[in-house]
Structures are given as C-alpha cells and as structure tokens.
Amino acid sequence: MASAVRANYAAAKCVQRGFGFEVIDRNFAVKKITLCANNLVSRYDAGQSVNAISKALSVSRSVVRNELVRAGVKPRTGSEANVIRMQSLSSAERKRLASAAHDAARGRTKTVAEMELKARTIERIGKSSKYEIAFGRWLADRGIDFVPQLAIGMYNVDIGINSSRIAVEIFGGNWHSTGRHADRYRSRMESLLGAGWLPVIIWCGRDFGFSEASADYVAAIHNIRCSDKSVRCQEHVIRGDCKTTAAARVNRYNGALVLGSSRS
Length: 264
Hints:
The chain is of the alpha/beta class. The protein is about 45% helix and about 15% strand. The protein contains 10 helices and 7 strands. Helix 3 packs across helix 4.
C-alpha cells in the first residue's frame, strides 16, 4: 500500500501549499477523437442541431461548431434553428408546446417594453389589408410618403405619415366597434394624441363605401400640417366615401362622430 502511494506521488509534479500538496501537472492519457467533417456537415444540413450532434458523438458543442465553421458552414441563427425544430415535431407535439406557452403567458401583464417590441415587429412584417393597400396606393399617387403598420409606442397604426404625423386607421369591419377593440379605442386615441399624432379613422366597407375621396381628405390635412397653418390635434372620423352620416350612427361606433363632406 505504501509503495503504491509513493509511486503515485512520483508520477505527479506537486507544489507544497499550506499544510498539504496540490497536484498541478499529471500525465493523464488523452484519447484523441477524429471527426469526419463531411459527416458533421451532412448531419447539420439534415437538420440536426450542434447539441444533438455533440451528444451523438460524445464531444463538446464547441468542438462540433468549430469543425463546422472550418468546413465553411454558417451556423444557424436561433430563429432558423427553431423553425427546423418545429418542422420536425408532429402536430400533437406542436399543440402541446403551444398550449404550454399559452398557459405560461395567460394572466401575465406584458411590460411596455415587450409591447413596444411587438409593435416594431409588426411594422417590420408590414402585413396590410386590401383596404390599406388601396389607400396606400392613393397616397403614393398624391406624392405622400407613408409607413404601413407604423409602430407608435406600443401601438401600430395602419398607415403612418411621419412628415405630418398623421396616423390613419382603416376600419373595414364592424368588429372594430365591439368587444376588446372598442374597449381599446379610447386609450389608443389618447396615446396617439398625447404623442403629437393626429388620428384619422376611416370606416369603410358595405355600409360606408370606400373611395379616393378619403385620400383627398387625408391629403388636405397633410398639406395643412406641413404648412405654417395650425390644425387642432384631435381625432378625425370619416366614412370611406366621405359622405355625411345620419346622427343615429354616432353612438354605434365607439362614441365617435362620423364626419364627412357636405355631399349627400
């Protein structure tokens, strides 16, 4: 036993520290692992993650990643990796993941920073309805630059005109006047007005029509806002065809008066 201990100390380089010894260098046998770059690239291109490959080959993730980079492979971003992961899941597995995410988020109040980030993401995607696309084309014909789904704080407006700070909202369905959409209307308007934007709400569709007259209305306000003239910063609510609306219509739509031209 004593001889074995002496042999063990002889095989190590030690330095005295305090009341004992610390091994600072030992001759351990290192197993060299040779990785096939083509195999790694094939696995990675097939959709396997760096983590999955490293576990399968019993090596660290950094080893796999370095070999892939040396082979000229561009590592996937987190979003790209997540897309591949979701594609590999069955419909039932995706539903379970979505259900768990909804359960975790349900009842939690989002922070202002989270809502502003979501608004910027929606602006970047820039998805527009047929009414918004048509209205944007009319503005472009009038030489007015705009941003679809412009993020203003934590809200998005259908069309934002930065030069005159006009926020155009196009309501193409009666669901805008009911439920959560109606509840949020007032807070949205107050937020836009407080930030110095002039909201223009355009009701369109079967009941209100939709024509270039609405673009003329916005263009007229735009020209005034870009000049030395002042215009009161309040919300404007008009029909899509800019015709006047009977007083009976007032209370149905968020309590906002639907204005228009004098045409009948």
